[in-house]
Design goal:
TRIM-NHL_E3_ligases, mainly beta, zinc ion binding, repeat, 43% strand
Amino acid sequence: MHNELTHFLDTLCSRGIWARGGKTVIGGTQGNATNQLHSPEGIYMDSTNALYIVDRLNHRIIKWEQEAITGNAVAGGIGPGVKPGELFQPRAMTVDKQGTMYIIDNSMPGSRVTRWQKGSKVGEVLFDFKHIIAGGIAFDPNDEDYLYLADRYEHSVLRFNIKNITGNGEIVAGGNHIGPALNQLEQHTRNSRIVVWSEGAKVGVVVGGGHGAGNQTDQLSFPEAFFLDRLTNTIYVADKNNNRVMRISADAPNAGFVIAGNDGKGNAAHQLPSPHGIALDSKGNLYVSDNENDRIQMFMCSSSAKFIGSLYFITLTIIFIQ
């Protein structure tokens, strides 16, 4: 997902050096208190360095402020459901410049997108899809009238004008059935690659992975999420099945580096079993949604640390994880 803070990274962590061990900023024990999480998925960092966490099996969104010892439930959290004020297994979210949240959750049999005005405890249903399984969400950074959704059912990316909602959206990437061709996308990330899809293009360009599932530095295995530093054209990938975070230059996709994890499954500070979300703050610190350990790990950007390795939207380009 697009994050406005990416431009800071050019000067604050340009050498790509992070602490090997992470610090748990929230969670670490499974539960529903506001300092606990249950199967966290996507995360989003806003312009104030506040972190929004999709706390999936607690059916809520948690907002965590820097240095806080607990979070605040800003949407859902009153039990699973689709009534006003409720969420049901949310999967992804984004926030516009006014602080309004847009959240994807399940509506059975499809999915829905709800809009939560800043400070409101009740969301408005923006979309209620019966045949679209939305898996990712982001705004066009140049025009927030346009919202993009990843449709996992049809293996495509859809664009909607939220000021004039009609139909099922415009297909802007994929939509050519499931497969590994460059005009195709695949919902379960079995293609293990990151693809850039320019506006109006009929095919994408692989900028990460694409060499089959594996654990070499030019490979990914079921990548789950990523973050883009727009200024340096660098992509940070939550490489789920490899239990690691990769740093890849979009200009040199065969030269990735491991910057966190890569130490198997476990709950030690340096381990990231099945990472599901990724974000960076204005100082270049790396935040990872550690799904299996029900925690968010922060890896500090540090020039003295030991280097441990050898659905985002930018301008009119889509980068798609599959």
